[in-house]
Structure formats: structure tokens, C-alpha cells
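In response to reviewer comment 3 from the previous cycle, which asked for concrete evidence that the modeling workflow produces usable outputs, we include below a single protein chain processed end to end. The sequence was submitted unchanged, and the resulting C-alpha cells are shown without manual editing.
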Amino acid sequence: MFCVIYRSAKRDQTYLYVDKKDDFSRVPEALMKSFGTPQLVMLLPLDGSKKLASADIEKVKQALKEEGFYLQMPPPPENLLSGHYNVSK
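The workflow returned the following C-alpha cells.
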């Protein structure tokens, strides 16, 4: 199984995985509007030979089978002020 990964033109560190190149037919229209024009990043085999940087390969495979896409969002921003308060006490 292969997947095609696209980067969002509107949202930093947001990626959309689909199983066929340029096939966004199963991606909700509202998601495509907020995602912007998809920018091709890479084609990737999901056979475990390569690791995904910020996504669980099994979750990606399951989402592609069930929903037809997988959306990778950026990690939440680190709250540096909270860390400072914990060190100061």
C-alpha cells in the first residue's frame, strides 16, 4: 500500500495523506477549503520500510482504508511560560 502526502498551502505543518495521487474525492469539501491548494510532498510506501516523522503508520493505513484520507496536524505549541512558573516554584 502506498500513500501520497500533500502539504497545506494555508496551514503550517499540516499534511494530508491520500491513497491515490490528486484524488481528493473522499476528503470533505470543508477540509479542502481550509487546507488550501495541496502541494505534493512525496509518495510513500506504507509497508513499514520507511518511518513517518509525526504519524503512526498503522493509524494512517486504517484512516486511508476507512475514510480515504488522513490529516496530520501540527503538534500543540509549547507553553514556555507554564514551564517557567514550574521551575520558579
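The first helix runs from residue 29 to 35. We consider this sufficient to address the reviewer's concern, and the full set will be provided in the supplementary archive.
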